[in-house]
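Repro:
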Amino acid sequence: MEFITYEAEGQIGIITINRPKALNALNSTVLEELDKALDAVDLQTVRCLILTGAGEKSFVAGADIGEMSTLTKAEGEAFGKKGNDVFRKLETFPIPVIAAVNGFALGGGCEISMSCDIRICSENAVFGQPEVGLGITPGFGGTQRLARIVGTGKAKEMIYGARNIKAEEAYRIGLVNNVYPLEELMPAAKKLAATIARNAPIAVRNCKRAINEGLQVDMDQAVVIEEKLFGNCFETYDQKEGMAAFLEKRKVEAFLNK
């Protein structure tokens, strides 16, 4: 692939958006390659994904303005759908995804980070939805996910004002989980991914589904979703081994994803 690299380090997969000369901006090709990269992840062995950008300046600086500048209404809507389809695939990906945000995460970059389960960032990170300054709205889920993550008032302030925020404020409002010096960002992402990967993968996947699906319905429906996914863990090898290890006061020998 031209703009996406993928590597697996044991149980951790790392997807890098590799278009540094354009600050990793998202064009149609990047979106298509990201879609293919997700399809190529071996879910039998990989238990957590990290998504990051190439270079030290930018995670993803946004969607490609050059490509968008000549779009018709119909083409604009289709481009929005292309981005939304890929980002939704990322959001509902069976295993957890950590965004390691190195530098700019503007427009589509902020939006793709919000499609991940957990966001951590470098001290030089900048987040924002600057689209109204370009005469458009956020088109890859920004109007929906930002409000759900940081609250309606803060989201409207950022989106209506096209106001960027630095790493410290992103942490304060809950947009990111932690902030690290740039050189410590990927080691921290890998450490967090390894912590997740050590746990029972069926249970972790079910937790992701329970949280994501439960947030879309009322509490009465949400607890039913949880009950079913809770029950789904029983009779698995991993459940039997995890509970046996606890009762026998020993460490789990291995979770086998079955």
